[in-house]
Automatic annotation (TrEMBL):
Protein name, as recorded: Cytochrome c domain-containing protein
Cytochrome c domain ranges (all copies): 1-86
Organism from which the protein derives: Bradyrhizobium denitrificans
UniProt key word Nucleus: no
InterPro entries reported in the protein's UniProt record: Cyt_c-like_dom, Cyt_c-like_dom_sf, Cyt_c_1A/1B
Superkingdom, taxonomy of origin: Bacteria
Keywords, comma-separated and alphabetical: Electron transport, Heme, Iron, Metal-binding, Transport
Upper classification of the organism: Bacteria, Pseudomonadati, Pseudomonadota, Alphaproteobacteria, Hyphomicrobiales
């Protein structure tokens, strides 16, 4: 509902296509919060896992309204799925 897996198709959140190894806050055409733009994060498996566990803790001031995924297995499955979404 909030994100797309289509390249260049932003919704309420940015497209997650090709997210692995992408610098946070850099999808063209998406208006990021300064917290995300200035986070200095690169979306690796580890940073995605930490962010998905608790977005507000990982990036204080993010506009992503999501409580996080507490189950580590569920997060890992999502991270691996996102990692598979690329050219």
């Amino acid at each position: 509902m909030c994100h797309s897996l289509e390249p260049g198709r932003n919704k309420l959140g940015p497209s997650l296509f090709g997210v692995l190894d992408r610098r946070a806050g850099t999808v063209a055409g998406f208006n990021y919060s300064s917290a995300n733009k200035n986070s200095g994060l690169v979306w690796t498996r580890e940073t995605l896992d930490a962010y998905l566990a608790d977005p507000q803790k990982m990036v204080p001031g993010t506009l992503m309204v999501f409580p996080g995924i507490k189950n580590g297995g569920d997060r890992q499955a999502l991270v691996e799925f996102l990692a598979s979404q690329h050219d």
